[in-house]
Amino acid sequence: MEIFLYAIAALLVLALVFGAILGFASVRFKVEGNPIVDQVNELLPQTQCGQCGFPGCRPYAEAIANGESINKCPPGGQTTINSLADLLDVEPEPLDAENGVEKPPMVAVIREDECIGCTKCIQACPVDAILGAAKQMHTVMADECTGCDLCVEPCPVDCIDMKAIEVTTRTWSWELPSKQSQADLIATDLRGENAA
Amino acid sequence: MNLPLKDITETVQQAPHKTWPLTGGVHPEENKHQSTSKPISKASIPAKLVLPLSQHAGAPAEAIVEVGDRVLKGQMVAKAIGFVSVPVHAPTSGVVTAIDDHSIPHPSGMNDTCITIETDGKDEWCELKPVEDYLAVEPSELVEHIRQSGIAGMGGAGFPTAVKLSPRSTIDTLILNGTECEPYITADDMLMRERADEIISGAAILMHLLKAKQCLIGIEDNKPEAVAAMKQATAGNPSMTVAVFPTKYPSGGEKQLIQILTGQEVPSGKLPSDLGIAVQNVGTAAAVHQAVNHGKPLISRVTTLTGDALGDKKNLEALLGTSVGELLKEADVNGRQLNTLVMGGPMMGFTLDDMTVPVVKTTNCLIAGSSQEFPSSIPEQACIRCGMCAEVCPSSLLPQQLYWHAKAENFDQLKHHNLFDCIECGACSFVCPSSIPLVQYYRASKGAIRTQEAKNAKAERSKVRYETRQARLEQEQAEKEAKRKANAKKAAALKAARENKDDTSSTAATAEVDPVKAAIERAKAKKAAGGASAPTKAALSSEQKELKIQLSLANAQLKKTQRALAQVEKSGEGDTAKLKSDVEMLQAQADKLQKEFDKASAAPAPEAAAKPAVSADLKKLKVESAMAKAALKKAERALATALEEGSSETDALKQAVEEQRIKAEELAKKLEATSAEQTPAAPAQKPSADDKKLKVENAMAKAALKKAERALAKAQEEGSDTAELQKTVDECRIKAEQMAAQLAAVSSEPAPAKAAPSKPAVDDKKLKVENAMAKAALKKAERALAKAQEEGADTAELQKTVDECRTKAEQMANQLAAASAPASEKPAAEKPVTEAKPAADDQLKKLKIENAMAKAAMKKAQRAVDNADGDTSALETALAEAKTKAEAAEKALAEHLA
């Protein structure tokens, strides 16, 4: 009988000790905020375009951390979805077409002789990439433009075009060998096919 | 057994330099003998040279010549931009005919900016500035000289030589790369055979610059003639050693050559300079010699022309910019045999589709291959994991793993497997039994990773910019809020002070609040001071009258607002701060008006005193007339009351009225006559003053209207009693309209009196502003309507408003058009064309803007139609309208232009 009491007492003491350690740790190593939000935000393309339905990339990151689906970012495209799926350990899903389709990277270009200097696009730009003043011609800093499209709608004279960023000899890169050449046929079989 | 020193050095020189074996590597068929049978010959000067601005690694050069300029041989035509960049020089004399996009030697087959020079055949040198004694010149100056000579690595990568000559760490070994391990190429071989002295001289300069203690010249053992020539040239120079090692591809890679000659391996991510080693191509050394000792910039290079499709395989010294087609012609090309044209070697080069691409600084070889030489590639098959690729990889990578990860686009794993240490030599593809184009996989993956990294960097930058902007906006908001609060506080304090004043001195308060009393008092005071016999009312000029009206209006407004404020404060709901600020504003306005009024009423007195002779008669007459009128009025009133009461005195009264009327009329006539004589005194200024006043009044009336409207809207929102407010609004509106009408009348009248050209402009501007406002109102109304429709609310009224607004806007537009048409026509008709131009330009601009806006509206409408799901008929009509508008605008613009 006594041995049971000892056992219970010992377990009780152990429980108290470990409980105290855990309690201390939870206070001492408390994590401020949700670190997953930052990690998700890192992966988003930061165009701040709002196509996901949230007012910017960080709000969407917060929403993702709270269980929002990860396929609502058209500028990031499948690459972003895949990396988000990797990070959150969920199945990658195809891009939700409701939010838009994946487009090549764009840059806003102001047709400068048509600009009337209304500053509306400047107010709309989420990354301050448009330069200009009231009644002065505006222009886009192409390097800073995220191609988010937000400046197009407010323009009263519709002088902003979204142009796909052209590939130059400096940005060009080789493509993966085309799928066609990866025929799963051995060469001799293929030759036979050509002859036929 | 002591040998003399000289003998020892000779023994050292004779002893072969120890070499280490290359990791991996392959033995492709060499095919070098075809092009070594003839000495290097000079290519003839072609009619046209095309110089790409980017012939090197790094930033492209920037053209410093213009089309039409004559350039001399060796003259700089494009300057270096940035540190990693080199200039471009004219290879012969001629005229610049174009600076535009031209096809360049690049695996993408894309175009890039090039300078085209039409040669004149004179081959006239510009003034050359050789360095007389390079040992006496500051090393940094010498490096700059080499940079300005346009020298970039001539082995293939084209890295600016000057950058390699300014290393951050100390260099003890210079390695001259004469390996030329790729099949077919013999340019360096021939250069070493024929110009060994130049190479050694260049090497000496490089050693001096790098402060290197020794120079190793690495040559494969398949070039015995070159080895002999170089050995001969270095004889007697103990610091230079010719190292010969077995032929194996790719011994010529920078890191591979370092390993062969020194046994050291350049760690991943490090540079040779971190080991104290610099590697330069033998061709580069020769170019440095030319630049320093002869002052000649890099304008030509030795290029191997080989391949089965050529009848005359040889090495040519070609001017940079010579088209590939021209060179092949010199080598007797057989067009029918030519199947594949390769620039560079068969292992690392790329095929050209265009014969017009020029020879550049890195073009060491052109292979015009027949179909036997370069059969079309065998289709890729599945990897059988044989591991041969790993055996031949000179960088000890795992090509197989890289292949799988590249296929899966698993960039992290690729980086983990050191993809970026791959030198793209093609040894793995060469040995692959499944003919997998492995190098292409690696190149594509490298490109994708670089793109991804650039994207990430940009995203990071965008994030920072976005966050900075957010912070700025928040700060602005906070500042605004603080300002607003401070203002409200100030207003409250002011109000409290005023209430205090009210309690202490009631007379002051009444004077302030009751304008009528104040006016009476002032009138009395004036009467006492001036002692004039004229009645107060008649003494007030029209100006004063107007001011007075305004003042009383402002005071009434003030009172009303104060009452509203009191009410709100009592009920404790609604925005008191705003009302308070309104009160304050009104108060200020009233005060100002009061002051003006005071001034105006004070002014006539001295004026009258100053020139009494002129206006005394007139004044008297006026007074009399006014009195007569007053008497008449009084009599009429008495008559009216009498009539109403049915009294018997009416007849007498009637008579009296008649008498008075006659008197008044007489007086009026007299007054007219007199004033007609005297009025020319100051008619010019009056109208403008009136005009101004009217304008001010107009603006005030409008402001009052607006305020009242706002109050009404708020009241409606709050669901309180709006009948009174509505009345106020109506009143205000009527007043505003009257004012506007008056203003219009006045401003249209004095227009001719004033300077003709400025007036219409003002009108025009006003009209424009009004027009814009009407448009804005229309837009707002439309938006409200749309919203109401969405919410399913009652839209009949809104629709009416919209229609009204539209008619107004259209009217405005018409007016504007009418006003601006003569304005622009007049100067055009009157003045010479040059002066008329700005006006016309203005008009044109306006029309253009209108046109653009109409188009934009149309586009937006189109978009809306496209996006709308359900009922689009309304939208479509809007679209049709927008279209007609846009067309009209277009037509107007066209007409104007015509």
Q: In the CATH hierarchy, what is the architecture of the domain at 104-170 in chain A at level 2? A: 2-Layer Sandwich
Q: What is the 3D shape of chain B?
A: elongated
| Low-confidence region ranges of chain A | 192-196
- The CATH topology of the domain at 1-26 and 153-295 in chain B is given as Rossmann fold
Compute the number of strand runs of chain A.
4
Put simply, the count of helices of chain B is 28
Overall mean pLDDT of chain B: 78
Q: What is the topology, as strand order, of the major beta sheet of chain A?
A: 1-4
What is the correct CATH architecture of the domain at 1-26 and 153-295 in chain B?
A: 3-Layer(aba) Sandwich
Would you tell me the overall average pLDDT of chain A? 86
Radius of gyration of chain A: 28 Å
**pLDDT below 50 for ≥5 consecutive residues: which ranges of chain B?**
1-12, 507-513, 531-539, 604-614, 678-687, 749-762, 822-837
For the sheet with most strands of chain B, the description reads: 6 strands, mixed
Q: How is the biggest beta sheet of chain A arranged?
A: 2 strands, antiparallel
Give your account of this protein's structure.
With 196 residues, chain A is mainly alpha-helical. Among the domains of chain A are: 35-99, Electron transport complex subunit B, putative Fe-S cluster (3-methyladenine DNA Glycosylase II, Chain A, domain 3, Orthogonal Bundle), CATH 1.10.15.40; 104-170, Alpha-Beta Plaits, CATH 3.30.70.20. Chain A has helices at residues 2-28, 35-43, 57-65, 77-88, 120-124, 187-195, and strands at 106-110, 130-131, 139-140, 160-164. A two-stranded antiparallel sheet of chain A has the order 1-4. The longest helix of chain A has 27 residues, at 2-28. Chain A is elongated. Chain B has 898 residues and is an alpha/beta fold. Among the domains of chain B are: 1-26 and 153-295, NADH-ubiquinone oxidoreductase 51kDa subunit (Rossmann fold); 379-498, Fumarate Reductase Iron-sulfur Protein, Chain B, domain 2. In chain B, 58% of the residues lie in helices and 9% in strands. In chain B, the strands form 4 sheets. In chain B, strands 1-14-13-17-15-16 form a 6-stranded mixed β-sheet, sandwiched between helices. Chain B has a 4-stranded antiparallel β-sheet with strand order 2-8-7-4, with no helix packed on it. In chain B, helix 18 runs antiparallel to helix 19 (576-602). Chain B is elongated and about 150 Å long. The N and C termini of chain B lie far apart (106 Å). The model of chain B is unreliable at 1-12, 507-513, 531-539, 604-614, 678-687, 749-762 and 822-837 (pLDDT under 50). At the A-B interface, loops of A face helix 14 and helix 27 of B.
